[in-house]
């Protein structure tokens, strides 16, 4: 991963999520989303869903971000991705998504999809930068305010150029 750090900034470590990570993941989940997943949902993802793949980003022993996907056939579906509010704006979310995309490629996935709120233009810009494109709208997808979701797709092989050294 080609991240740049200021001298006093610790480098993040990316690793697979474990059950022990759930309490800190829940803190981030509640910070980041108006419709947070439950602790039980994450526990089920890690222990019972053989399609699920989750990773955490850790700095100085503290989980500061996480991302997950389902890998089905040759497609990866991003389930969630979030960074602690105090760590946003440092391209760490981008690094996390790049790593998730690379993991999907390693697992033999050909394409990746996700949904994003139509109002979340910052996330949409990041996804487009990494090779995603708008594939449609899911009307009323988010039940907290009935907001539409933009469906985005990425052909991972075509996006590989975006992934090498993307985060600088």
TrEMBL record:
Domain N-acetyltransferase: 12-157
Cited Pfam families: Acetyltransf_1
EC number: 2.3.1.128
Catalytic EC class: transferase
Keywords carried by this UniProt record: Acyltransferase, Cytoplasm, Transferase
Keyword Acetylation part of the UniProt annotation: no
InterPro entries (UniProt xref): AcTrfase_RimI/Ard1, Acyl_CoA_acyltransferase, GNAT_dom, YpeA/RimI_acetyltransf
SUPFAM superfamilies noted in UniProt: Acyl-CoA N-acyltransferases (Nat)
GO molecular function term, any single one: N-acetyltransferase activity
Source species, domain of life: Bacteria
Family: Belongs to the acetyltransferase family. RimI subfamily.
NCBIfam families listed in its UniProt record: rimI
Listed name of the protein: Ribosomal-protein-alanine N-acetyltransferase
Source organism per UniProt: Paenibacillus nuruki
């Amino acid at each position: 991963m080609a991240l740049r750090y200021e001298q006093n900034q610790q480098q993040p470590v990316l690793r697979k999520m474990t059950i022990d990570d759930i309490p800190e993941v829940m803190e981030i989940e509640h910070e980041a989303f108006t419709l947070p997943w439950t602790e039980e949902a994450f526990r089920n993802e890690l222990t019972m869903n053989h399609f699920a793949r989750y990773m955490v980003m850790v700095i100085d022993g503290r989980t500061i971000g996480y991302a997950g996907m389902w890998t089905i056939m040759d497609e990866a579906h991003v389930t969630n991705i979030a960074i602690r509010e105090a760590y946003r704006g440092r391209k760490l979310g981008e690094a996390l998504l790049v790593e998730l995309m690379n993991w999907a490629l390693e697992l033999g996935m050909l394409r990746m999809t996700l949904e994003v709120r139509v109002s979340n233009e910052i996330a949409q810009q990041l996804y487009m930068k990494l090779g995603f494109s708008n594939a449609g709208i899911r009307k009323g997808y988010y039940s907290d305010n009935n907001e539409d979701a933009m469906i985005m797709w990425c052909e991972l092989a075509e996006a590989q150029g975006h992934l090498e050294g993307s985060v600088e």
